[in-house]
Write a structure and sequence with these properties.
Blueprint (H helix, E strand, L loop, with lengths): L3 H30 L3 H27 L19 H28 L3 H31 L5 H6 L15
Helix pairs in contact: 1-2, 1-3, 3-4
């Protein structure tokens, strides 16, 4: 069974991963209605990946003899200034998630919960990839400029890292 502190902080991460999924769904919707089908596809794929991250935490908490709590999710923003600003928000959000994962890792060491520490290592590496991917997209957007998005939108899925780290839940 997880120690109460570890259970609570892992349940907090369930909420953060679920919010992440909803945030990317909101970004996908904004992209779609603004004629950016490629960006929307990227965001929908990202939303699905975040949902899988949430499910990993839920299953882990339950498998360790504790109880995962499914919270209400805060409503994400629905409008964005432009694509570059939206991806800056993606990077900022991924940095927040990285800090959250690191906080859990630190707690597992304090609590001497080496099983959870080991479980979290996948997320540590995943966050390196997430931040790198967001930064690469921002870099590409700066190269193409604000008025030259057609090819970027068409090719954005080629910028997604292969889902080698996404493992099925269950």
């Amino acid at each position: 069974m997880l120690k109460k502190k570890v259970e609570d902080i892992c349940n907090r991460q369930v909420e953060r991963e679920g919010y992440s999924s909803n945030l990317y769904l909101a970004m996908a919707s904004w992209s779609e209605v603004n004629g950016l089908a490629g960006v929307a596809q990227w965001m929908y794929a990202q939303a699905e990946e975040e949902k899988l991250h949430m499910l990993k935490f839920i299953k882990y908490i339950n498998e360790r003899g504790s109880k995962a709590i499914l919270p209400a999710f805060k409503k994400p923003p629905a409008d964005f200034k432009n694509v570059e600003e939206m991806f800056k928000e993606v990077l900022k959000h991924e940095q927040f998630v990285t800090a959250s994962i690191n906080e859990i890792v630190a707690m597992t060491l304090t609590e001497k919960d080496f099983n959870t520490h080991n479980f979290l290592q996948w997320f540590v590496m995943e966050q390196v990839q997430e931040e790198s991917s967001a930064q690469a997209i921002i870099d590409k957007l700066r190269l193409v400029g604000k008025n030259n998005l057609y090819q970027f939108d068409r090719d954005i899925m080629s910028l997604r890292a292969p889902d080698t780290n996404v493992q099925p839940v269950g």
